[in-house]
């Protein structure tokens, strides 16, 4: 093998290692985020279901959290309620008497992986492979535990984005398992899967959760949000040059549509 081919092989090998490592890091961060949301959901559920808190408690707490956790999305009133639903729906399976391989809950009410799942039991490795947005899509649109586990499995092994998941649930794929499209038999390489699956974690709140921009880090620690802000500033300056008829409202502007939290990349107003 000549030196040119050796270098090309080295680049491919290192790139594959990087992509797989990024996926494992994203998955570990996602597991921690799911654990946090489960714990918050437990705390909120226990205080709202028994009347300890008043009717506007979640709204009030949400407003305070958004003021305290600047730059971190995911703590809207609707999403805190999603965390409560996440706990309420899964706690019967998490809190039962643990089997030989299962998840457990630590003293703080957070999920911890203690063993590998038994055959036929819930595959918790697949469970933590899905972002919170995917989980809420499944919980809000399905009721049967086996149907939920089916979609969790398919998302985990196919790396579906939330729109693909939404369409398959809508089409009733669970009830048509014998008539799956041909591409269901396609198996992505480990590297391609890692790249695709890592991208899906960006569809949730993980980047904000692990973002250290507001924790006094050096300016050299440039992350995706910083780059985005630089681009936004350039676009803003360009647009406002058209005159005072254009007003820049904001970027990552939060709205709620049918109870779902969404963020507009750039919002302008033309009067």
Structure description:
Helices cover 54% and strands 11% of the residues. It is built from 10 helices and 4 strands; from the N terminus they run H-H-H-E-E-H-H-H-H-H-H-H-E-E. It has a two-stranded antiparallel ribbon with strand order 1-2. Strands 3-4 form a two-stranded antiparallel sheet. A hairpin with a 5-residue loop joins strand 1 and strand 2. Helix 1 (3-48) packs across helix 3.
Please describe the structure with a list of short key phrases separated by commas or semicolons.
two-stranded antiparallel sheet; 10 helices; single chain; 271 residues
Gist?
The chain has ten helices and four strands, in the order H-H-H-E-E-H-H-H-H-H-H-H-E-E. The chain has helices spanning 3-48, 57-68, 77-94, 124-127, 132-141, 145-158, 162-170, 190-201, 206-210, 224-240; strands at residues 103-105, 111-113, 246-257, 260-270.
Strand and helix layout:
Elements: H1 3-48, H2 57-68, H3 77-94, E1 103-105, E2 111-113, H4 124-127, H5 132-141, H6 145-158, H7 162-170, H8 190-201, H9 206-210, H10 224-240, E3 246-257, E4 260-270
Antiparallel strand pairs: 1-2, 3-4
Helix pairs in contact: 1-3, 1-8, 5-6, 5-7
